Structure formats: C-alpha cells, structure tokens
Amino acid sequence: MRRLLARHALLFGLCASGLLAAACASSKGAREDGDGSTNSGGSGNDAAAATGGTDTSSGGSGATGGTDTSSGGSGATGGADTSSGGSGATGGTDTSSGGSATGGDTGAPGGTGASAGQGAGASAGSGAGTAGLPGAAGATSGGLGNAMQSGMGSSSERYATEMVSRDNVPYILITNGWGPGFQSHTVSWDGTAFTVEAMEGMRGSSGQPASYPSVFCGHYSVQQVPDCGLPRALDQIKSLKTGWRWSANGNTGPYNAAYDIWLGTDTGFGMYLMVWLRDPPTEQPAGSPDPANQGITVANTPGVWNIWSGTVNNRPIINWVRAEGSDTSEIEFDVMDFIRDAQTRGLTITGTQVNAVAVGFEIWQGPVTNLKSEDFYVDVE
Asked: Which DSSP state fits 1?
C-alpha cells in the first residue's frame, strides 16, 4: 500500500511522492505504511514520488497511451457479457468506455510506512507512451492457468510501463523500482504473468521496499488506464472477482505477495485496501494490528486473516494479512466481500468507487531470483 499511496498522490493531486506500495514498513512490528507509496511514506516515499512525478508529468507519451487505451473502449462496449469463465472466474464483463482514462493514477503521498508510494509517478514516465491495446469486447475470462495471455517482453528499466492483455482484456504492467534503496532488476512478462528474474536493492531508511513490480486493472499510479472495467462506482458493481497465482521459486527473503486495491472517487483518491498472501519475517503492514480482528475469516474467501489498520499519508488503510509462515500461493475472491467485511467490523471505508486492483511483490531486500507471478485477472460485473 505504501507504494500505491505515493503514486496516487501524483495523479490525483495528493502529492508528488511515492508510487504504488501502500502498506510496507520497516522492521516487523513497525512496518511503515506503503509499498513504496502506501507503506513507507515518509521522506523516503516523498523522494520516490517526487521523481516519479517528474516522469509522470513528462510522460506525454503516457497520455498518448491512455488515449489509445480509452479509444479501445469501443471494443469493450461492443462485447456482451460472456458468462462462461474458467474456474473461479465469472466470465467476461462488458468493459465499457475506457473514459475514466482521464488523468493518470497519482500515487498518494508517501506515508510513514515503508510501502507507501512505490514509484507510481515514475513508472508513468518511461514506457508511458506504450500504445494502448484495443478495448475488450466482452471477452470470456478463463480461470487461473487457462487464459490466453498476450504481450511479451523484458526490461531492466527502473520504471518500465507496458500494456498487456489476458483473454483480450487489457492490463498494465509496471516494473516499478520506486524505493530509495533500489539498485537494479530485470523483469520479464507474458500477459499478466511476470517474473522478477533478478533484483538487487535494500530497505529504505524510512522502511520503504526497494520495488513493487506489479500488474493492475484500473486507474492506478500511471497515466494509462486500461479498459478493463475499472474504475467503477461501488453501487454499480454486482461482483468484482479476482484471482492470482504466484510462485516463490525458492525465494525466502523480505518480500510480500500482496493485492493493492485503491478506492476513491472520479476526482480523487480515498483509501487503500491490501490483501497480503505472504507476510515476510522482518516486515509488516502499515498501521497496527486490530486486537478485535485477529484470526478472522472473510465470507466466501479461503484462509484465516489478521487485520492491520491505520493511515498512510492521512488516508485510511486496511490490511488483511495471512499469518507469518502461512503463505498462500493461489487465491480467488470477490473484492466486494472484503469491502463488506470491513463495514461489518466497523472499519471506515472511504470512497464511492473502486479505482484499481493490483498485485505484485513488495521487495525490501535483494537478491531475488525468478520470483514469479504466474497468472492474474480481474472480472467486473
């Protein structure tokens, strides 16, 4: 979450620091908020965000990419909802106008946490000009491992931004080396699947992760907004299903595997929701553990979770975290079930729409080799 916050700030005018991460922190127990944007805010995030802002503003080509993406809206509106989806997927949805491609996602200002602000702005710069993919024409979304992936490549750029697609639905991949301790990486991708082939870096002085390589659907930390069905108003969402499969491939160090979900309005950023499938030994989410909500379950969702909550860059953040040592390498759920879970527990939900859903790895320390995100999808109805 920390990284995310910073990015959001850039695009929505909250600040010019941090990119995407929203809930990382320093040592365990005090993980600062943010994956760079959200988690580690603080001066570290602000620094990352500031540089990201420059890339974002200068990434005129990014605006072009956004145009290409939104122009693909006709493809999206042309499709009919297809009900057949693979396992867990409810099938394609009409991804109507990509009109929400106005403005890029702005990373929220870096919070005090480590993962606040993961290079959202920066990733908006380099690679921003990638041509948009056509809008999805009501394509059927295959279940995890059964999709048609499109868009292959590899980059060692710190902030590469690429358009990819899964079952003809467009997404955006960002290599996002936003943290002040970032040194180098090589990331390859095939559609929404990507591999951190190599990464070197270290934790920032304010607890920021070094990077948050990720894939997302919606209005996130760069100017491009893929025509994938998000953003969408909460009262217009019947279901917001998503699935993710990843593989550690022997990596045991300080990194998480986490969803970063942004809520807000059509003009601004509201809050972060994070779902951690891996809680590393030495890092923790933004905020603090909620004593009344430890070892809880979420309706229609596998696993047991511990809730951490607080603020990042003066924005609320709620984290559902798997217990340390209980990594989950594959999951499918409805984001709306987590939103309802928060409301049922009396936790504040800020915003009228879901702006974006992202997945990736907040990496605090290298080396990392062949850490892999095998498949990811978002299916909005």
From this structure: -
